[in-house]
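FW: tagging you since you asked about this chain on Friday. Here's the raw sequence from the shared folder, copied in full. Didn't touch anything.
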Amino acid sequence: TLEEVHEQLDQGIIELEDHFYHEEMDSWAELSDLDFSSLETEAQSMPAIPQPAGIPETEEESAASVIPEPLATHINDFVDELDHSLGSSMVSVVMYGGMVKSKSIKDTDPIKLMVVVREITTKILDQVSEPYMMSRRKDQLQLLTLSEEDLLSSTDVFPIKFLDMQQDYRVLKGEDLVKDLEINRDHLRLRCEQEMKNLMLSLRQAYLKNSTRPKALSGVMKKSYSAFLSAADVLAELSTGSVYRSSEEILQAADGIGINITPLRRIQELNKGKIFADPADQKKVYEELMATVRHSAAMADQL
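HL: got it, structure written out here
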């Protein structure tokens, strides 16, 4: 049952990358694809992980999403063990991504943490590795391990990543190095155009490989949805000067600057289980998606 799978994941008996299969499926799938949301109504939950002393929560943070138990405790335990292991080499641990952005958090969601240390050496990486490997959530933990110098010199290379982090993050230990990061508009525009064009080319290549495989095409569209939103968020912000956080805000902003979001709306329905009954209809939506991405790339080029 779903409850048994959830319990075995929590106990570490099975892992998220393990695969499952049943008679109604035509291929194996990863356990990470399972939806445990039906179990969450019975689960205990706790408020979002608090800021350390001296860093008060803003109104937005206090109204942020709730991290369910035992996930919140496991995250806190890992950060405490990491702090103990690193000692004076620790500078900051910052949570970003869905854990601070999403309104609904599942027990199996990815845990994105930026770990900033004094310097990068094999000794320090070993000090990070030990609590990481011992954590009950190691298969969910996604660590971005940087030195202070790495962080300050990387905003030109990864401007979208750090802009997204700057909009929604929480300091779990140490200093707040995120709020004062300088992200250049020209770097954002160039990276936005690059991501849109990468997506444009990826969609074409994926179609060549999967044009006669409707299920695979649907999978491509689902994956493209989040990639598009990430770049469209920046495109809308550069175009309007406003900040958008939720998927709905981003789509409405994209619509407002002249982007056709109709194919994205259909992909939202696909994500909710409304599959394409007619392959011709699926190809029409796919073509609209390619056109939307191509138009967005052209808009980024003209900013």
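FW: Residues 21-28, 37-63 have pLDDT under 50 and may be disordered.
HL: agreed, and The chain has three domains: 2-34, 45-174, 185-302.
FW: great, closing this out.
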